[in-house]
Specification:
The complex is a heterodimer of chains A (268) and B (336).
Chain A lengths: L4 E10 L2 E11 L4 E5 L6 H8 L7 E6 L2 E2 L5 H7 E4 L11 H7 L13 H13 L15 H14 L4 E5 L7 H18 L2 E5 L3 H7 L2 E6 L2 E6 L1 H4 L2 H8 L3 E5 L6 E5 L5 H4 L2
Parallel strand pairs in A: 3-8, 3-9, 6-7, 7-8
Antiparallel strand pairs in A: 1-2, 1-4, 4-5, 9-10, 11-12
Helix pairs in contact in A: 3-5, 4-5
Chain B lengths: L7 H25 L7 H8 L8 H34 L12 H14 L4 H24 L7 H24 L5 H9 L8 H20 L1 H8 L2 H6 L4 H23 L5 H13 L3 H25 L8 H21 L1
Helix pairs in contact in B: 1-2, 1-3, 1-13, 3-8, 3-11, 3-12, 3-13, 4-5, 4-6, 4-11, 5-6, 5-11, 8-11, 12-13, 13-14
Classes of the chains: A alpha/beta (268), B mainly alpha (336).
Chain lengths: 268, 336
């Protein structure tokens, strides 16, 4: 089966500074793929490169079996939807207008949205439960609402892959679960390939079926949560002491931060 | 779900019809009134074909007032559209051709051309275009490297470039001794009294295709308002679109500056007013700016002809008296 993404010998640098070194991996179609790693490990750059907006200096990225370079920008936007880390809200667009913008890759240059596009937008807003906010302005939304609106816009693109850069950062616990359940549902019901960056290794363990642990632009480990979230790998990546035991709900590891004053209890 | 908002096409048509009517009414007023007779009632007779087309009255209206009203409409439309495009591209609500120094740069080029004795076209026009592009580039370079959120740096760069342009213009004026001096000074404040059919012809060929091109890029402009990154993810070629818009806008502004001099703040007042009324969708704002901006300057020009007890004042005086306080208000609100 053709993988959703295939990355081979990927190298990216900004000027002289190398960000990603020789990465090779595959993301199976329909998987929930979560990229974790410490700050400045190259996670966002990797996501942007897979989305086609950062050009690699070396190697290839294939989306659905076709090299990125062979895609027209617009065709690519019909396959991949991206939810960036930050969405500016200073321009007072209404929620429905923003969601409709997701139809952009499907419209001709001067084309106006038709009834069908409105229906697709309405359906996307129903899925992410923002339909009651259609007339609200962007700057009047809470963080969780805004994130659901941006995901609705992404769905409106009717993509095969959705890429999200820390979609749960700055959300409270209920909204975090809410967004993650939504993504899980999209994967199960629509076969969407979900690729996301997260700083929360426990969230990654609960939802991800494939994890990629990056450090300084190199792969530390890749595989199921059991394979990636081991004490050895995590310690190597994050350089800090952690407690790794079993999650009581799902057969995955659970990672606990260890404050300084408890460290002597773990010393062996 | 609430989809009650009328579809875009219907809004587009109704807004265009409404603003076209406004433009027509403004134009009739602009043709009908003046600092000297004929006044409205008499003029209406001419406009609706009730009077002798050879009469003095008819000549004043068709030969003197019509080119002026047309020029005012074109200048207003271009400057409003220029403001709208700059505000969207630079993600700065205070960006405007005059404030950014783009108008000033064209003025330096144009005056240099006049003093060198070049023909209005292509010599003076070309120098004006070069001047506008050079200042735009300079402002963008000066403001680059700062965080995009630092909206002040762009404005500061614009103010400085403007000050420099003014100094250059003053230098040109100080070495000019002849009768053209009065004209140049008037022109610096924005002057529509020199309008003539042959000057208009160039604008009528140049501006409509530019406006159509900008309208075609309305949806990319909407996406850019949500950030360059978002626009790229939506399959927009951000670099190409941005450069195209900057060049087209500078071309339009420099062509206008050659004919009208420096009319300030139109690109601030009209886009803000329309955004307040219509929302931020550029597919509505672009035609609305063209029609609304045209009406606005026709009316401002009418005021500049009617207000002084004798003669007239440059239309730039009126637009600055209206626009500058609004600019200060927006600046205050941005800080709040």
């Amino acid at each position: 089966m053709i993988p959703a993404v295939r990355v081979e010998n990927l190298g990216v640098s900004y000027g002289k500074r190398a960000i990603l070194h020789n990465l090779s991996f595959q993301i199976p179609n329909g998987s929930f793929f979560i990229i974790i790693g410490p700050n400045s490990s190259g996670k966002t750059t990797l996501l942007k490169t897979m989305a086609g907006v950062v050009k690699p200096q070396q190697g290839v990225v294939e989306i659905l079996g076709k090299p990125l370079a062979d895609y027209a920008k617009k065709t690519l936007a019909q396959k991949i939807a991206v939810v960036p880390q930050y969405t500016p809200t200073d321009v007072p667009f209404k929620v429905l207008e923003v969601v409709l913008m997701g139809r952009s890759p499907h419209l001709s240059l001067a084309g106006l949205e038709q009834k069908r596009d409105l229906e697709i937008a309405a359906a996307a807003m129903a899925v992410t439960r923002v339909d009651h906010l259609a007339d609200r302005r962007l700057d009047q939304l809470s963080g969780g609402e805004l994130q659901r609106v941006v995901i609705a816009r992404a769905l409106c693109q009717q993509p095969r892959l959705i890429m999200l850069d820390e979609p749960t950062a700055s959300l409270d616990l209920a909204h975090q679960v809410n967004i993650m359940d939504l993504l899980e549902g999209l994967r199960e019901e629509r076969g969407l390939t979900v690729i996301m960056i997260s700083h929360d290794v426990n969230l990654a363990a609960m939802y991800g079926d494939q994890l990629l642990l990056l450090k300084e632009g190199r792969i530390v480990s890749l595989g199921t949560p059991r394979q990636v979230l081991t004490y050895a790998e995590l310690e190597q990546a994050y350089d800090c002491m952690l407690l790794v035991d079993d999650n009581p709900l799902r057969d995955v590891p659970r990672v606990t931060l260890v404050p300084k004053k408890f460290r002597h209890q773990l010393d062996c | 779900m609430n989809l009650h908002q009328p579809p875009l096409l219907r809004r587009l048509v109704s807004i265009s019809v409404l603003l076209t009517l406004l433009l027509l009414v403004s134009a009739v007023l602009g043709l009908g009134l003046g600092s000297a007779p004929p006044q409205l009632v008499e003029s209406l007779g001419v406009l609706f074909g009730q009077a002798d087309p050879q009469s003095m009255t008819a000549t004043i209206i068709w030969r003197l007032r019509l080119p002026r009203v047309l020029l005012a409409a074109l200048v207003g439309a271009t400057l409003s559209l220029g403001g709208l495009v700059f505000q969207a591209l630079l993600r700065n609500p205070l960006a405007e051709p005059y404030i950014l120094g783009v108008s000033g740069g064209s003025a330096v080029g144009a005056i240099l051309g006049i003093l060198l004795g070049l023909a209005p076209f292509p010599g003076v026009a070309l120098l004006a275009f070069v001047g506008s592009m050079a200042t735009l580039l300079l402002v963008l370079i000066l403001a680059a490297g700062r965080a995009a959120s630092q909206k002040g740096s762009l404005l500061l760069a614009g103010v400085m470039v403007n000050a420099f342009c003014s100094a250059v213009i003053m230098f040109f004026i100080s070495i000019t001794q002849d009768a053209r001096l009065h004209n140049i000074i008037y022109w610096l404040m924005g002057d529509l009294s020199q309008a003539s059919p042959d000057r208009l012809a160039l604008l009528l060929y140049l501006l409509p295709p530019c406006i159509v091109l900008i309208f075609l890029l309305a949806r990319p402009l909407n996406l850019l308002a949500l950030g360059e990154e978002v626009a790229m993810y939506m399959g927009i070629n951000v670099k190409t679109v941005s450069y195209m818009l900057l060049v087209i806008t500078s071309l339009m502004v420099s062509a206008i500056v050659c004919q009208s001099g420096l009319v300030g703040f139109v690109g601030l007042v009209i886009p803000h007013l329309l955004r307040l009324l219509l929302g931020p969708d550029h597919r509505l704002l672009i035609p609305a700016c063209v029609l609304g901006g045209g009406s606005y300057l026709v009316l401002c020009d009418l005021l500049s002809r009617l207000l002084p007890s004798q003669g007239e004042m440059p239309v730039g005086v009126i637009t600055a008296i209206i626009g500058a306080p609004l600019f200060i208000l927006l600046l205050q609100r941005g800080r709040g």
